[in-house]
Design brief:
By secondary structure, this protein is α+β, with helices and mostly antiparallel strands. The protein is 32% helix and 34% strand. Bound molecules: coenzyme A.
Length: 171
């Protein structure tokens, strides 16, 4: 598995791989901003936005590919554009395809995002993730510090509300 930085989403194969990763996670029940089932228009609109951010340099997009060139995981680093935040970034959309989980890829993608952040002089990272989900032990195991939880942060399709856990990591 190779992790590389995606600098353009113009390649239809790359775009299709990213679409598939988001669809797999959302439809598998992950709380990553969308309700299942994830429709093609919402998926396309999301990645069109990411393409713009990548193009402008506001977002660093990493993806893990297997030997066949198939994308099996991804993560983003949103670089804070504020004058008081040139040292900050937010880790977003850490997704590993459900067929490739529990083999250390999520941990590797997170480490790659941290390494890229460090290289860009971003020495303070933040993120949040749904309470009780599998990502929480991943972040704790990678040395992230839990700030606390925000109750009722997300609302699911059935109307239920869920807390998010906020983390940070100084690099
Ligand atoms: C969260 C996610 C990225 C983890 O990817 P992964 O490749 O399976 O993670 P890893 O194999 O690197 O696991 C690293 C650690 O995370 C924890 N972890 C991962 N999956 C877990 C699970 N299902 N249950 C409990 N702990 C889990 C474990 O501590 C694990 O270490 P271990 O295998 O040595 O016990 C993946 O489950 C995923 O894509 N989920 C859907 C999207 C999502 O929720 N993303 C997070 C948004 S913030």
């Amino acid at each position: 598995m190779t992790i590389t930085e995606i600098r353009s989403l113009d390649d239809p194969r790359v775009l299709a791989g990213l679409w598939a990763l988001l669809e797999d996670s959302v439809n598998g029940g992950a709380s990553v901003g969308f309700h299942p089932p994830l429709g093609a228009p919402a998926n396309a609109a999301y990645w069109a936005g990411v393409a713009e951010q990548v193009k402008s340099g506001a977002t660093v997009l990493l993806a893990a590919g297997n030997d066949d060139g198939e994308l099996v995981g991804t993560v983003q680093l949103a670089l804070c554009p504020k004058q008081n935040g040139p040292h900050r970034a937010e880790v977003q959309k850490l997704l590993v395809h459900s067929a490739h989980r529990r083999r250390g890829l999520g941990r590797r993608l997170l480490a790659a995002a941290e390494e890229r952040a460090r290289a860009l002089g971003r020495t303070l990272l933040v993120l949040d993730t749904l309470e009780g989900r599998e990502a929480v032990p991943l972040y704790l195991g990678a040395g992230w510090i839990e700030v606390g939880r925000i109750p009722g942060y997300t609302v699911e399709a059935d109307g239920s509300r869920h807390a998010t856990v906020v983390f940070y990591k100084p690099l």
